[in-house]
Amino acid sequence: MKKFFRNLFSGYLLILILLLIEAGFLLFIQYGLDDVVNKWIGGDASENLLKLLVAFGYILVRLIGFVISVIIFFKIINKPENPEFKIPWIVGMLLLPFFFSMIFLIFGRHKLMRKEKRIIKATDTAYKNEFYLNDKKKEALGNAVGTFAYLNNTTNMGAHQNNQITYYKKGEDFFPALIEELKKAEELIFMEFFIISDGVYWKEIRQILIDKAEAGVEVRLIYDDMGCGGTIASNTPRVLRKHGVKCYKFHPFRPILSGVYNNRDHRKIVIIDHKIAFTGGMNLS
Description:
The relative contact order is 0.10. The chain is of the alpha/beta class. It contains twelve helices and five strands. It is extended. Helix 4 packs across helix 6. Strands 3-2-1-4-5 form a five-stranded mixed beta sheet.
């Protein structure tokens, strides 16, 4: 019940209503626009200049929509992907060409922006230079070098030496260890989570992040806005930034139909001083 009221008054309900209005508008253009225009214009549109202009604009809009639909239809057919993903789009385009054209423009394109491509390229280059499988590493890996070379080529995951790994089976074991290491941080704390819930552990960790940031440690936190919808206060980034924590929402939920909402951040990562890392399937509560 607490989560329901938090969602109700946090703006998510308003955003949902606006998204439904946008979807309804697209359906209206597909289904209802013809009847509305015909009833308003009535008999001979040439008798009234305004009606004539409306009729001309309506025909122009339909013509542009038809051209866009044809272009998108052939774009879907020629996309280099599995036909199983194409068939629903093709069927939709045949039944509701304008509506599915708009939906495709919103959700059907998955290209990265130029800025994102530059960031990925720079990151990839830096990673390969740091974790390149050189002769020294090949010698240390011995008979396992072939396996690591395969993983390196197919997943871009480099070989690491001198590591120690601890497996935490339950949250009761994981969170105390995480809190202990966070308290030891001297240079950097980076945290990335899909869900952060306003529970006992989060309250303690939030205070640690604030204390460390005020002490000069670089503290960064990113969490998924949809995953944390209603689980923590919507003003969390603003509150933490006041204390020096660089906190951001991943793909903030806004009242605009966008395919970006399907791209969520399911990572659960903590990095401390570039020496200690935590990862797995546990979110933060």
